[in-house]
Structure formats: C-alpha cells, structure tokens
Amino acid sequence: MMNVNALRAERGTLLAFAAAIALVIVGGIYRPSFVQPENLATLLLLASFIGIAAAGQTFVVLIGGIDLSVPWVLNAMAILLTTTSLGQNDRAWWAVPLALGAGVLAGALNGLGIVLFDIPPVVMTLAMNGIMEGLVLGLTGGFTCGACNSYAPPAIVWLFTAKPIPGVANGLLLWALIAAGVGVVLSLTLLGRRIYALGNNPLATYLSGIDTRAVTVIVYALSGFFAAIAGFGLAAFGQQATLGMGDPFLFDSIAAVVIGGASILGGKGNYWGSVAGAIFLIVLRSVLQEYNIGEAGRSIASGVVILIALLLYGRQRAEF
Amino acid sequence: MARLRLRYYAVQNVPLLLSLGLFVAMVILYIILFALKQSRLPGAFELLTTVNNTLSVGLSAIGQTFVVLTGGIDLSVGGIVDVTNSVAARYMGDSPGSIALVSLATLAVGAFAGLTNGLLVVYGRLQPIIVTLATLAIWEGIALLVLPQQGGSIPPALTAILAGTLPFLTWLPNSVIIAVLLVAGWQLLRSTPFLTGVYAIGNDERAARANGISVARAKLGAYTLAGTCAGAAGLYFAAANTSGDATSGTPFTLTSIAAVVLGGVSLFGGRGSAIGSLAGAFILTLLLNVLFFAGVNTQLQEFFQGLFLILAVVASTLVRRSLQRAR
Amino acid sequence: MKAIEGVALSKSFGGVVALRRASFAADGGEVHALVGENGAGKSTLIKLLSGLYPPDSGEIRVNDATVHFARPQDALVSGIGTVFQELTLLPFMTVAENLMLGREPRSGPFIDRRKLITAAHELFDDAGISGIEPLELVGNLPLAQQQIVEIVKAVSRKPRIIFMDEPTSALAEHSVDWLFGVIKRLRAEGACIVFTSHRWNEIKGIADRITVFRNGEWVATSQAAELSEGDAVERMTGQRLDVLFPKPAPVTDQTQRLTVEGVTAKKLPAISFGARAGEVLGIGGLAGQGQRELFLTLFGVNPHTAGTVRVDGAAAHLRTPQEAIRAGIALIPEDRKTEGLLLPLSVRQNLALAVLKRVSRNGFVRRAAEDALVGSMVTSLAIKTPNPGQRVGALSGGNQQKVLIGRWLLTDARVLLLYDITRGVDVGTKRDIYLLIRRLSEEGRTILLYSTDTEEIAHLCHRVLIMREGRIVSELQHDLTPEAIVAAAIRVPVAS
C-alpha cells in the first residue's frame, strides 16, 4: 500500500541509486576495468564506512538534530581499539566492547547535554568533537605513544576485510546486516515510530506521553555507536588507526543522509536513502578519479551534488 | 534619561555582559599566571601576539554573527577563509597598487561566496546548515585549485600594516586599532535600518514580514556581510603568517561558532552582538594562553576548549533559568 | 466608492478550506464589524486583505482599483494597517523599535536612537496611553500591554483602511473604552475600520454595519441598528440551530472519579473541585481565565506546586503527560496542528501514538494488533480515510480532529480533558463529536469540557464551573442556558 507521500520520501533514495548506477556506466565507458566486479566490490566496501557512520547520522537527523562529533568520535574509538588491543586477538574481547561502549557514552553525553541543558545540538556535538580530538591528542602525546602504531586486532581485520565468500569482503556483509537492522528498527519497532513522531512534531509527541528526552539520548548514543563501528572498519581497512582519519566523515555522513532524501528538519527519510547516498558519493569520487580529476575537483563536485539534490527534493514550501 | 537607558540596556543584554565579564576575567587570569611564570607583567609583545593570533578568528566570528542573528548558521566560513587566504597569497604583488587591488579582490571573493549562500537560502528555500556544508566543500576545492601547494607570498608591507605597529606608536599593535575599528563599525551598523531588519527577522520572521520588512534583503545582506568578514579573516590570516595555505581555514568554521556562542549570541536568532563574538574569540585565545601557563599539555587544548564551551553554555542556561524563576 | 473590497476570495490550507468565494466590502468613514464563529473565515479574510498571503482565487480592490499584494509591505503602502490576532511584535526588541519598525527616524544613514525614543513617547501621548516604557523589551510586557502596542503601531501609520482582528480579547475594560475612542476618532477622520469581536455588546456599541461569516462563506451584511443579537447568532450558526444537541446522559453512578484538592500552579491559585463518573463538567468563564492552565496542569504539562489530584481515589503523580496518561487522564488539545497531529504521517501512526507500547512486544510494534485497534477506531468514529496509511494532513479538518480524538480514546482514559475541540470543525463533524461525548459519558468516563462556544457548554454539560483569574467563582447546575453561563462569566466582582 504505497501512497503518494511514501513515494515522495523514496524519491531521494531512487534518484541516488539511479545516479550511482549511471555513474558506474560512465566510468565503465571510459575504462572498462572500472566495472569489473572486484573494483565495484572495493567501492562498495569504501562506501560501507560512510554508510555505517551515516546510519548514526540518519537517526539523529530524523529527530531533527545533527551530529558534528562523528569525525573525532570515530577517530577516537578507532585509536582506543588499536591502543588497547595492541593488535592482539586475546585482548580484543574486551577492547572491542570498551571502544564501542566509549562511543555510546560520548553519544549519550551529547544527548544529555541537549535535553538537560537545552544546548543546541550544533554546539553540543561541536564541543564533543573538540573534546574527543583533545583527548586523543593529549592521551597519545600527539600520537607518539608506544601503542599508537599498534595494528587492529586480526579478528576485526577479518571481520571487515576477509573474503570467505570470494569477491565479497565481510565488511559488506556486515553493512548489509546493519542496513537490515536499522531498517527494521526504523520501520517496525517502538523506537522507530517514536523517532519519526519526535522528528515531525516534538510537542505533539511529548503530549502523547512519549519520553522525548529518552528518545533523544538513545538516538545520539546510537550515533556514537555507529561512529565507533565505522572507526573499527577504517582501522581494519588501513591496518592501523591514524590521526585525522575521521575528518572527512563530518561532510560525508551528513551528505549521504541528505542526498538520500532525508529532511534536515527531521521526520522524513530512511536509511536506504543514506545507503544510496554513501554509494553515490564514493562512486562519484572514484569516477572523477578515473577521469584524472584531483582532490580539488572532487571536493567541488561533492558540494555541487548536495546542492543539486537539495534543489531537487529538499526545498521548503514557499512561506506566505 | 541616560541612566534609565543604561539600566534597560544592562538588563536586556545580560548574555553580552556575561561574555564581556568572562573576557575580563580571562585577561586577569592570564596576567596573573603570566606574572607568576615569567616574573614580569605581559608587555607590548604579548599584546601584539595575542591580538594578532585572535583577529582572524574574531573577524570570522563577527561574520558568523550576522548569519546567526537571522537564525541560520554558516558552516562555509572555513572554505571562504581557505579560498581568500589562497587568493591573497597567490596573486598579491609587492607594489602598493597590487596590495590594494588584491586585498579588495579577496574581500570581493568573500562577499560573492556569502551572497551565493544567501541566494541559495532565500530563493532556493534551503536550510542554511546544509547549504553552507555544501558550499564549504566547493570553496575548499576551489582553494586547492588556486593554491595547490602551501606557500605563495604576502608582501611584508601588508604584514606590517595589518600585523605590525605604527612607527610612532610601537606599544600599540595595529591589530588592536583594527579591533577597535571593528567594534566602532559594528556600533554604527547596529544603528542602521538594515541591521534592525536582520534582528527583526531573527526575532520572528513572519511578524517581521507583516511589519513590511523585506526578509530576502535582510538575509542576503547578512550572508554577504558574513562572507566578506570571512574573506577579511582569510586575508588577515595570510598577512599574519606571511604566506598562504589552501587548508588553513578548516578550524575557522568551528571556532567562529564557538566564539559566537561564548559571545552570548543566541543560536535561535535575533539576540546578541558582534562585540560579544569578538570577545568570544579573545576568550578562546586567552584560554589557550592560560592553559599554556598553567602547564597543561598543549595537545589537550581542543579538549579544554570543548569542555569550556559546554560549561559556558550550561552556565548561561542556568543563569537564564534562575532569572526566569526570579521573575 | 468602496474603500476596500474583496471579490469572490477563496483560500485553503492543506486541503482545509478557510474561505470559499467570499466577498466583502467596506466604506470610508464607517466601522464595519465582522462576526462569525471560530473558523468562519474572518481572520483569513483579514490576512488576505492585508497581503499576508495571496488568495487562491478572487480579487482585491482598494478605492475601486484592483490591487495585487505580493507581500504585506504592498498593503502597508496602499494605506492598509492591521492589528493581527496573533500579534506581530518582535519579543526581543524594544517597544520603541517595534513601534517605529521600518520608519525609524534617521540622521544620515543611521537610526537616531534618541529621536526614536522621543517618537515612541509621542505616539503614546497622541494615543492617550501612559505607563508603557519605550525602552522595555516587548516580550517583557504583559499581554494586554502588548495588544496596546500592536494597536498603537498600526494606528500611528495613519492608515486609511484599518483591520483589527480581535483587538479587545486581551484588553481590560478601560482599555476597551480607550480603543473605542481611537476607533471613533479614526472614523471621524474618514478612515475605514474593520474589526472582529466575539462580544456582542462591543459590536453593537460601535459598529455601523455588520457582516456575518459562516464556514468560510459570506452570509449577510446589514446595518448594525437593524440586526438583533438573535438574528446575528442565527446567521452565524446557521444550520447549527437545526443540530439537536443530544441531551446529556443521566449520571447514574455516584462514584467520585476526579478529585482536585488545592492544586496550585501557574495562573492557578489553589483550585478545588470534583467530578463523578460519567459526568460532563463544563469549565466556563471568559477567555484566558486559567482554563487552559487548569487543563495543562491536570495533564502534567505545567507543574503544580501544591495540592493533590485523585483519580478513583488514587493520588496521581502528574509531572509529565506520561504520568497523567498512566493515571487515566487524556488531554485533547485545541490546536491540532501544533499540539496534536503529526500531519505528514499516516492515520495509523497518529492514532496509535499514545498506545504504541500496548501494541508492542519486545520493542516491536505488532502490526496486526495495531491494525486491529486502528481499524476499530476508524470504524467507531466513522473517520473518512481511504486507508489507514493515508497521510493525516490530506484529510478534512473534521476528520483530522476525529483522528486526534481517536488517539486518546484508545488510551482508555477515565478522565477526558476536552479543550475547545470543535474549533474550526464543520457542522457534520460537530454533531458526531456531540454524540460521541454523550456516548463516552454513558460509558462512565468523566469529561471536562472547555469551549469558546458557550452553546456547547450549555447543552452538553451536567454542571458548569465558571472560572475567573484562575479561581472557580461560581457553579451552575440547573437551568444551563448560554445566557446564564455568560451572565455568570461577566458578572463583575465587586473588587478589582
């Protein structure tokens, strides 16, 4: 039973997927190797990191908030994982929950600051980003510590990069699992219903007896959780955690959500859109790379693409 | 009459006064710590470096103020700083004509960037936070095209003018004079119908419209001024560092917002002053100086800045709540 | 020559028709009253004629010349001034800045602040107002003074045509006299004044002509002298007189269901009353006498600092709506757009919102259970929707209101707080809601009913409490007529 409104919400998702496919074709015309399955699988794996971080950002944007702390929460948790596990599987069993828990805690603190002290989300998450950055730099002595160059534990590397199914990295399966999970949460659970309600009309939701503060804290905590997982994936992919590895994720996580058709004002959108947005961003950049367009051009193109997406389906109604 | 006006002004500008108070407290704390560590009082050199280090952030924060007053936010500040910084470093020659022309050109680039944001927000009917996130990426990219390698050069003459001292007033850095001029300029602008309109739409856009205020004109003006200020920040940053860097603007987006918040400007729009934002920029610099003299690991500075920002907002929220309760 | 004329104006908002081919004209030198019930289209007409938004169709003429207002500025330039019902003041700017917005005294390119203050003082002096400080922030003024600032601002622009939408609703009696003095002076100067009011004696006291609106349509325009209150009410309510209010069901159960003892909260200095199971208790009085605060406090939105509330003898904690719902209390709010509905979401999501937990297991919403509940409510309230997945914003106003009511009936609340729930609802839906209220009362639920329509209170309630300044000043149980209720509401206390 698909009604007009649902279709409108899906428009961003469909357009982003269609545009990604079109771009793949464009890339293939220029260089047939671009459309080789191995290359496409690599692109998808790269997209998965953005996609996983964007899962958290999707939750936050759906309630009408924004999380600017994704970059350094991601970075900090990746570093926390490598420096505590020291690349050893027998330390990973506690290092992994520790880093995940720390990510959840950072996110929850964002939520608590917002609901308890009325701090605007932009300011709270901005400050949290700085706090995480400062903590990482301070505690690692500017990344000079002995443990700083530790590798990601092999189990985590396996979880993201191994290919028990030929050609398909585990990371992709994990992403599919996350996508399914987020999809289920948003469409089938109590929490999902409350998130959409809160994003659409906070006052009416509160007056309907829903604990809007709890929902807000949970949502920001989820964002911290997914940022941590994205950090693990990035550390696994590059073997190590590095300083500044999270920086592109401020732009990318929000861009994926917006390109996917979610409204930054909250209440409208879904995770499939963000998945499409993440894939589109990566394909766009890699096609531009095929055409020998440098970092500058890729950055410009990413910005222009967001503007186009917004003008296509992100405009507000005319104000009378 | 004058006393009455003063009393009303004080009651109505509690956040600004709190921010100025915090600024004074930080100055005193800095002087005490400095004196304890160095066994002398800070002098002309310390004044020069402190103000020079702050002025570019201060300029970008003043720009951010215009947009925040309309109820929006400008994330593209960093990108505009990048591109104007690069333009200045790449194209400026040593001749007075070139210095003047390229300086004006950087400001024009900033104004154009701001106007673009404004047009997208007003006529595109898009949310400021996303529009400026997109233009941030665009300007960052353009900056890399303008100045692919760090470097370029800024003529010493411009550095001397913007970041030096006058030959007959060596104890008074030019940056202090610029800061004073900025405050005076803001006060003049505050008395224009244009800025009154900006405050009006930040108070309540519908009501302002019903009163005959042109929302489009006020917003376009605010975004253009914001871009111009970010351009000035990029120019000043290049002059103070005597060279350019296409990625030097990155921190400016976040510090400009932090300075605005510390300056007591409401992120919901319609309330606050660029003087507070400038004070906020100084508070951020002084905080770093204080941490340095307090022997805190400099690598923790972002941590303390973030914490300080949260504490300041929480404190002002608590003050506001207790004032409301007292009513 | 007609000063202002609207010809066949239509306007709808998201599927809800606010104005349907309505025509209206007023002359210079006359005071023209617009009357009609809430939702009759008066405010929409005024907003169209003031350029706040454009009509969907129809034409506006000023001095017989067709005009197109793209923005309010254009109307201001055409000599139209407006006192809007929802004031157009800027809360964080001073009284002086508000009064002079857009026409500040200048010296060179700059606003002359000293002259600005002087000008504000002069405007107040001219208008005969004292006691409002031009340097104060408007947001710090009490509502009555804000209303005066809004009036002075509009009048001081010397408009030839001036609209006043409910200018007296927030004013004390002596300020109403002041306003009428202002209106008479404007009329003597040849201006055209169009105003709306719910108070018949005010209308009779000042209007030259009266135009009646009903359900977004023009009904009649007559000389004020020739129109009696009865005729006016008949025209305003139209078919509604044919609507038989169902007789309240007899209260058989004598159980005390709701007990409010000494509840003290914002605008409520210690209030006490009780209500039985199955009783419909009207909360009457003039607008803004603490009725809204009472409802919000009983629903846990406004905190109370003293007193207790009991439902069926059990003390209810009421710190959040959540706790109120748990205690068996439900509030159906007046403004369904901002306080009630999630317009872009489906009928299903809106109906189930307050009972999501009940239809969930282990955090998952059980779709079958939800659909069963939602379906039963759609049927039981006869909500006209193609399917439960339909976006609520696309329904008619009456059906939107039914969805909101349905949400709260699903909570099985024993105490229902109905706050002006028939506002802006069509006649057919009103009848459905009246029957529903009776049914709910028969089921033994206790209902607190507030309405701006006194007829409703008179006909639907077993008992009526009259509130003034947050206190219950009288209680009516027998002979509930609109006249008796209004008389009790306006009976001026000896003091104050």
Secondary structure layout plus pairing:
The complex is a heterotrimer of chains A (320), B (327) and C (496).
Chain A: H1 4-30, H2 37-62, H3 70-85, H4 89-117, H5 121-139, H6 154-161, H7 170-188, H8 190-200, H9 202-207, H10 212-237, H11 248-259, H12 271-290, H13 295-313
Chain B: H1 2-12, H2 14-38, H3 44-69, H4 77-91, H5 96-122, H6 128-146, H7 156-163, E1 165-166, E2 169-173, H8 174-190, H9 193-203, H10 205-210, H11 215-241, H12 250-262, H13 274-293, H14 301-326
Antiparallel strand pairs in B: 1-2
Helix pairs in contact in B: 2-13, 3-8, 3-11, 3-12, 3-13, 4-5, 4-6, 4-11, 4-12, 5-6, 5-11, 7-11, 9-11, 12-13
Chain C: E1 4-13, E2 16-26, E3 31-35, H1 42-49, E4 57-62, E5 65-67, H2 72-77, E6 80-83, H3 95-99, E7 106-107, E8 110-111, H4 113-127, H5 143-156, E9 161-165, H6 173-188, E10 192-196, H7 200-206, E11 209-214, E12 217-223, H8 229-237, E13 256-265, E14 268-276, E15 280-284, H9 291-298, E16 304-311, E17 314-315, H10 321-326, E18 329-332, H11 336-340, H12 347-352, E19 360-361, E20 364-365, H13 367-380, H14 397-409, E21 415-419, H15 427-442, E22 446-450, H16 454-460, E23 463-468, E24 471-476, H17 482-490
Notes on the structure:
The complex is a heterotrimer of chains A (320), B (327) and C (496). Chain A has helices at 4-30, 37-62, 70-85, 89-117, 121-139, 154-161, 170-188, 190-200, 202-207, 212-237, 248-259, 271-290, 295-313. Chain A is mainly alpha-helical and 320 residues long. Chain A has a single domain (9-310), classed as ABC transporter involved in vitamin B12 uptake, BtuC (Orthogonal Bundle), CATH 1.10.3470. Chain A starts with a helix and ends in a 7-residue tail after the last helix. Chain B has helices at residues 2-12, 14-38, 44-69, 77-91, 96-122, 128-146, 156-163, 174-190, 193-203, 205-210, 215-241, 250-262, 274-293, 301-326; strands at residues 165-166, 169-173. Chain B contains 14 helices and two strands. Chain C has two domains: 4-241, 3-Layer(aba) Sandwich (Rossmann fold), CATH 3.40.50.300; 256-490, P-loop containing nucleotide triphosphate hydrolases (Rossmann fold, 3-Layer(aba) Sandwich). Chain C has 17 helices and 24 strands. Chain C starts with a strand and ends in a 6-residue tail after the last helix. The relative contact order of chain C is 0.11. Classes of the chains: A mainly alpha (320), B mainly alpha (327), C alpha/beta (496). Chains in contact: A-B, A-C, B-C.
